[in-house]
Write a structure and sequence with these properties.
- It is a single chain.
- The chain is of the alpha+beta class and about 200 residues long.
- The protein folds into two domains: about 60 residues, OB fold (Dihydrolipoamide Acetyltransferase, E2P) (Beta Barrel); about 130 residues, DNA polymerase, domain 1.
- It has a five-stranded mixed beta barrel.
- A hairpin with a 2-residue loop joins strand 4 and strand 5.
- Helix 2 packs across helix 3, helix 7 crosses helix 9 and helix 8 packs across helix 9.
Length: about 200
């Protein structure tokens, strides 16, 4: 319903901000990390949003980037993960680290998040990898160069960025601008995200 909200930052608390848009204050729940980075009081800010509706709850959740929003939406699509758990994960792990943990089955990285045990972490990895394989199968109009479990750095970066919602074509366009051979995988992903977020 709302792609983003842009207005003056009126209030910051531990778990939400209030943004004034034309005299209407929007209460937007965010991770502690996102609240730190959103800007200062009185500044004009832009927050990407997810309109969350449940029987007993209608809330707006906010994010500093589309990657954070995508990560949140992926997490709440996993059975047993609610909005509050997803926001807690965003406070503890960056979208690039999260995507990397999913494609490399790194459950130990996910269990560092408070409230996420081994079973939940395993479910996150399993469900999101299955989802990614389905999306990849739908996209296979051209010859598939990398399979999701291919271990080359370029293919792992491609898979991780697909977890964050980018298309194969978008990713391939930026990967050739990056020194894939000499950089660590997480650094490749971070640099790719910088290019992708400009588009």
């Amino acid at each position: 319903m709302f792609a983003y909200i842009k207005g003056n930052l009126e209030q910051k608390t531990n778990n939400f901000v209030v943004i004034d848009v034309g005299g209407i204050g929007y209460r937007i729940f965010m991770s502690s990390k996102a609240i730190e980075n959103v800007g200062g009081l009185g500044e004009k800010v832009k927050v990407y949003t997810h309109y969350y509706v449940r029987e007993d709850n209608i809330s707006l959740y906010g994010f500093n980037s589309n990657e954070e929003l995508r990560m949140f939406e992926l997490l709440i699509s996993v059975s047993g993960i609610g909005a509050k758990s997803a926001i807690a994960m965003l406070s503890e792990i960056s979208p690039s680290s999260f995507a990397l943990a999913v494609i490399s089955d790194d459950i130990s990285k996910l269990v560092k998040v408070p409230g996420i045990g081994k079973k939940t972490a395993a479910r996150i990895v399993l469900e999101l990898k299955d989802k990614l394989k389905t999306e990849e199968a739908i996209e296979q109009t051209e010859e598939l160069v990398c399979a999701i479990d291919d271990s080359s750095k370029e293919c792992e970066a491609l898979a991780a960025l697909q977890v964050l919602g980018y298309t194969r074509k978008e990713i391939e366009n930026v990967l050739h601008k990056i020194d894939v051979k000499n950089l660590e995988l997480e650094e490749i992903i971070k640099q790719a995200l910088k290019f992708l977020s400009r588009n």
